[in-house]
């Protein structure tokens, strides 16, 4: 599959896009051969040390296996003119939580708790795998809900790479939908950051919608209060 990725003659349709880039699904002879490919935005991949940090984190987490995490198979540079950087992951059938929340359909509290009771232990298992292990970019955009109501976390290798962007709190949120805890000055995609991001997912689930660009971090107090009333 690695060689096939490097020489894709034409790009398949986009299945999801956000500030990190476009996800495209490559289908193989059997469903088990399908992969999802994140074509990273060139502005990210061109930042010094981004590629090294991404490859290093992917290597460190290569042996991590958990049923609620999609396996990352490879980090590659394509042989296209732009030498596009991609993250190749196993395909997870289902709907992105961000797409589900974009419909503004309210979720029942039992459904919210069902998802959170999967997310928290799954992230704890990642943290337990090694002292520095963390997702760093948790959010509804990086979570898929399967047809049997399982929650699966995707793209868990980007943490230390996005640190290299050296964005502000506001830019991480507005450009990438990545929440960093306040009032930290040096932003680290570590386990504490994962806890903050789990909180953002929980808030979104309780509100039944995505948080708006201007709501984090400036208005987070009011948002928590409204979620508490719910």
Features:
single chain, 230 residues, alpha+beta, five-stranded antiparallel sheet, three-stranded antiparallel sheet, 9 helices, 8 strands
User: How large, in whole angstroms, is the Cα Rg?
Assistant: 17 Å
Number of helices: 9
Overall 3D shape: globular
| N-to-C SSE string, H for helix and E for strand | HEEEHHEEEHHEEHHHH
Query: Could you tell me the number of beta strands?
Result: 8
Q: How many strands, what sense, and barrel or not for the largest sheet?
A: 5 strands, antiparallel
Describe the protein.
The structure is a single chain. With 230 residues, this protein is α+β, with helices and mostly antiparallel strands. The chain is 38% helix and 16% strand. It contains 9 helices and 8 strands. The chain has helices at residues 2-6, 42-45, 50-60, 97-102, 109-129, 159-163, 169-176, 191-207, 220-229, and strands at 14-18, 21-26, 35-40, 72-77, 85-90, 95-96, 143-145, 151-153. The strands form 2 sheets. Strands 1-2-3-5-4 form a 5-stranded antiparallel sheet. It has a 3-stranded antiparallel sheet with strand order 6-7-8. A hairpin with a 7-residue loop joins strand 4 and strand 5 (85-90). Helix 5 (109-129) runs antiparallel to helix 8 (191-207). The radius of gyration is 17 Å and the shape is globular. The model has no long low-confidence stretch (mean pLDDT 90).
């Amino acid at each position: 599959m690695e060689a096939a990725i490097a020489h894709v003659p034409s790009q398949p349709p986009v299945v999801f896009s956000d500030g990190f880039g476009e996800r495209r699904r490559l289908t193989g002879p059997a469903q088990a051969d399908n992969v999802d490919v994140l074509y990273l935005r060139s502005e990210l991949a061109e930042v010094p040390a981004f590629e090294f940090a991404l490859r290093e984190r992917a290597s460190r987490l290569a042996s991590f296996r958990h049923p609620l995490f999609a396996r990352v198979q490879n980090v590659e540079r394509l042989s296209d003119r732009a030498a596009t950087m991609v993250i190749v992951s196993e395909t997870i059938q289902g709907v992105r939580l961000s797409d589900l929340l974009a419909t503004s359909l309210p979720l029942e509290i039992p459904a919210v708790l069902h998802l959170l009771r999967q997310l928290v232990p799954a992230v704890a298992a990642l943290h337990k795998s090694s002292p520095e292990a963390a997702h760093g970019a948790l959010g509804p955009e990086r979570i898929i809900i399967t047809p049997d109501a399982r929650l699966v976390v995707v793209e868990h290798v980007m943490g230390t790479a996005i640190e290299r962007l050296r964005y502000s709190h506001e830019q991480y949120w507005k450009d990438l939908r990545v929440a960093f805890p306040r009032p930290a000055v040096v932003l680290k995609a570590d386990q504490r950051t994962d806890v903050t991001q789990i909180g953002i997912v929980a808030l979104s689930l309780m509100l039944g919608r995505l948080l708006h660009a201007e709501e984090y971090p400036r208005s987070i107090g009011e948002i928590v209060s409204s979620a508490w009333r719910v």
